[in-house]
Amino acid sequence: MNSPVAQRFIERVESRTAVIGIVGLGYVGIPLALAALRKGIKVIGFDIDQKRVDDLNAGKCAIKHIPMDLIVEGVRNGHFVATADFDRMSEPDALLIAVPTPLTKHREPDLSYVVKTTEAIAKRLRKDQLIVLESTTYPGTTDEVMRPILEKVTGLKSGEEFFLAFSPEREDPGNPDFGTSTIPKVVGGDGADALAMSVALYSALVVTAVPVSSTATAEAVKLTENIFRAVNIALVNELKVVYEAMGIDVWEVIDAAKTKPFGFMPFYPGPGLGGHCIPIDPFYLTWKAREYDIATRFIELAGEINSRMPYRVVNRLAELLDTQVRKNLSDARILILGIAYKKNIDDMRESPALKLIELIEKRGAHVAFHDPFIPIIPPTREHAELTGRKSVGIGAESLAGFDAVLIATDHDDVDYGTIVTHSKLVIDTRNACARNGVMAANVFKA
Ligand SMILES: NC(=O)c1ccc[n+]([C@@H]2O[C@H](COP(=O)([O-])OP(=O)(O)OC[C@H]3O[C@@H](n4cnc5c(N)ncnc54)[C@H](O)[C@@H]3O)[C@@H](O)[C@H]2O)c1
User: Fold this and answer.
1) Whether residue 83 has its Cβ less than 6 Å from ligand 1
2) Ligand 1 within 6 A of CB of 143
3) 35 lines ligand 1 (CB under 6 A)
4) Is the CB of 100 under 6 A from ligand 1?
5) In this structure, which residue's CA is closest to atom 27 in ligand 1?
6) How far, in Å, from the CA of 105 to the mean position of ligand 1?
7) Which candidate in 35, 277, 278, 420 is catalytic?
8) Helices (H), 15-132
9) What mean pLDDT is reported for the chain?
10) End-to-end Cα distance, the chain
């Protein structure tokens, strides 16, 4: 039985009179805003980045794959506004938080964005509001970090005077088959009312809300999903090395194995892990596990294997340059194709291509890159020195000027036939040439 407060909230969601606030308008926050607007729910978006706020209100977005028509319409009809004025945080019925959760330089959880956001909310919290953390984090964050701040600053009690929940984001940027609205959302609440309110909210926004027993369980679900990916990618990366030594093509093996209708799920090798999730999130659990004197050896091992991959690719590049074009890596000209962390998106956070550029340049080679999604390298935390470098063209003449082309990310919008025809040597870490039917004697998988 819901309390009258929870019941009123649920009715406001069902009648579409509820307003939601989204804090952090990035890769997760903007699609979430779109999912709400699509269902006729008004959104106030909050961000500390004034330029991002101004751009959104002008119908522009720095993230290429996100369609802006609903935002433009929302700004026009008053259903959407972006703001850096946090005093407006008391207006929405619910505040959903999607701010970054990176690692510190000592590879420990950096909760500073979550803490700052919680403090900002606490100063303006209105009685009966629902606060939901969506940022990926270790089990216990909502209960041990957020709840004490909110209760201390406001003097209000979670579960009675305001409501707190965790619902992990499962965004897969660039995925043509699944978007925010069509992916089920796991929800854990601090108490029965918080759970009922967040299930009602997410049932209105996405295809299904999946309730779990606590916020910590919901936090663990997200980490489990990403650790599952990290470990399986490490496994195929290891298999690639073994099979390569045996003259067996790992991609052919995986394609055949996946015809098994049960008990196998394909994962693919690559030049290393990238993105904001898989290289980072597993270490949130590793860190928290230490509090319980437990070592997460599987996770550490996967991290070790995956982080060795760029080094392996560069060694293979050097070896192939030597044997195929009689060139030392130290005086070679290398073109890296695709520097986004995965295909068909413009996000390059933690991209292994950046590590490849760093490692190849350290060996003395000249490196250029081509990426149809990234004309200029934006500032990144780990490779600030690469900021401002520009994507080069890949016409026949330009390709002939390189000793090798290294395919790091296999965007669809690239003519792989031209690459193979006009390059001396192609090293393919994604099986792109075979998949596009353009394998040739100068193409080597790595
Ligand atoms: N990108 C993905 O595909 C993805 C998928 C699943 C989960 N996640 C998780 O979602 C969370 C957000 O990731 P993202 O990729 O959207 O990040 P992002 O960097 O694209 O966006 C975060 C936004 O938050 C804003 N911000 C930072 N501090 C703020 C503050 N104190 N108040 C208000 N706004 C603030 C930033 O200006 C930025 O616009 C992270 O925890 C991430 O791990 C991301």
Assistant:
1) no
2) no
3) no
4) yes
5) 99
6) 18
7) 277
8) 29-38, 50-57, 69-77, 112-124
9) 95
10) 59
211 in Cβ contact with 195 (< 8 Å) = yes
- Side chain identity at residue 330, one-letter code: S
State how far the Cα of 341 lies from the Cα of 100, in Å rounded to an integer. 17
Phi-psi sector, 78: left (phi>0), alpha (psi -120 to 50), beta: left
Clarify whether 433 is annotated catalytic.
Answer: no
Q: Domain residue spans in the chain?
A: 4-213, 254-445
Classify the C-alpha dihedral 299-224-274-109 as positive or negative: negative
Fold of 254-445: Rossmann fold (3.40.50)
Dump pLDDT digits (tens) for 351-384. 999 999 999 999 999 999 999 999 999 988 789 9
Alpha helices in 110-180 (DSSP H): 112-124, 147-154
Say if 4-213 and 254-445 have the same CATH topology.
Answer: yes
Q: Please state, in angstroms and rounded to a whole number, the distance separating the CA atoms of residues 276 and 103.
A: 10
Task: Decide: 367 and 357 in contact? Cβ < 8 Å.
Answer: yes
| Mutation to probe ligand 1, out of 23, 30, 46, 47 (largest number of atoms < 8 A from CB) | 47
Q: Say what the pTM is.
A: 0.93
Mean pLDDT for the stretch of residues 200-222: 97
**Which CATH architecture describes the domain 4-213?**
3-Layer(aba) Sandwich (3.40)
pLDDT digits over 295-326, tens only? 999 999 999 999 999 999 999 999 999 999 99
